[in-house]
Structures are given as structure tokens and as C-alpha cells.
Amino acid sequence: MPTFRAPDGTRLSYRVSGDGDPLVCIPGGPADSVYLGDLGGLSAHRRLIVPDLRGTGRSAIPEDTSSYRCDRLVDDVEALREHLGLPRMDLLAHSAGTNIATQYVARYPHRVGRLALIGPSPRAVDVTITAETRRELARRRRNEPWFPAAFAALEAITEGTGGDFEAIAPFFHGRWDAVAQEHHEAGRPRNRDAVALFAAEGAFTPARTRAALASWRSPVLLLTGELDLNSPPVAAAEIAELFPDAALLVQRGAGHYPWLDDADRFTAATAAFLNG
User: Fold this and answer.
1) Residue 232, domain extent
2) pLDDT confidence of residue 187
């Protein structure tokens, strides 16, 4: 895998797949980017450039663990752009990675063409997702065989009384089958420090980020799954309102990984947006 150096000297890796105009894809987690795969076949439409965030996948563990903080990861994205020699790039991000992407746009608005936020996280822009919103979405899965145990765990988590996060994994997929279970295992974050420090104090400046996004005129796609417990459609809609030129797409029957639940639908919609 090719590598580049971050501003602090940390060696970071990335992989490239497909042909066409480049699309830099920021994974969530922070987790090994392998869980993104080729985004359901999006590599047939774009050349996907997918970095492993520092301390994940084949990227090195930094000497300074405070650099796992979300706002510090923005510097790594800029270093990748410079390494690739791209004066401007289209950007796609998933889940926690959308926090990096929105802060990147706020800091380097002239460096981004089109922006696709998949299963967007609200943390960088301070959008609240209530416990009841998550419960309402969860109850739509009440006829699934795994529902009782998963819902009990969700209740415990939302009430702050504990709960097993592994038990709620089925809620993040449109179908909890063998493929989803394998994907879940591949996408589990392995670096606990990277996860714990991602949102450390100072990681987000929502007021500043919101103000910057409000004046950014490039096209934005927010795509979330109809059943996405992590990024409910109502929250994605609120995030979309922060941009002057944003489109919201709710993919029917999908969870937090829409390219896995219906690859053709996801790829068609995302490619159509990216290609204008």
C-alpha cells in the first residue's frame, strides 16, 4: 500500500481502487478502512483513495496520542491532498469520518469540490439525537428474532445504566445476516486510544464549523439509511440544513452501511451526485 507522511512525521497508508476522477474517502470508527470495501461498487465510477486513519489499519501509531483528536486528523487529510497533488478534491466520508470532513471543509473550503456525507455524525456540528428518536427507529425492528436482547441493551445504554454495545450491532444493518455479521467484525475499532481520544476536549468547535459551512456553496449529499440508528434521518435532515446547497437522500431498508444493504441503489445515487 502507498504511504505518505503526516505533518508530525507519522507514516500513514492509503489504498487506491478503481478508475476515473479521484474521490478521497474518509472512514469512520476510527477503524481500519477495510470495512468500506469499494463502497458497493463505487470504484466502477471513481478512483477511490481510502486512507487508514492514524493508528488504524496499516498506518503507524503516532508518538503523540493527542493527535488522535478529530480536529488534528484534519491535518492528515490535507497532507494526503498535498501528497496526491490535487489542487481540489471531491470528498466522501462515513460515520465518525464525517466529523473530519466537515471540519476539513470549514478549514479548507477552496480545496473541496463535491462532498458526500454517508451516515453523517452530528458531533462536529452539535446536532442532538435523542434517546427516544433511537428507540422509535429500533422499535421498527420488533419482529426480528434478535430484537428483545438488542432492545434491552439499547434501553440500558440510553438510560445510562450500562448495556452491551455488541448486543445492539444488529440495529446498524438493514439485514442481520451472515454477511452483515462478517462486516461488523471487520469494521470493529481495534485501537482503543484512537477511539477514546477522537472526541477529546477541543476536538470540535461547532459554532465555528456551522458558520463556515453556512457560507460554503459547493454541492453536498447527505445519505443515510431509513433504519440507521446511529445517524437517524431526522438528524441527517438537520445537518443538511446547515449547507446552502445540500440534498438529503434516505435509502429505504438500509442501516448505517447503505452500500452493504443495497449496493446498486447506493452506488447509483452516490455516483449520480458525484458526477453532477
Assistant:
1) 3-126+190-274
2) 82
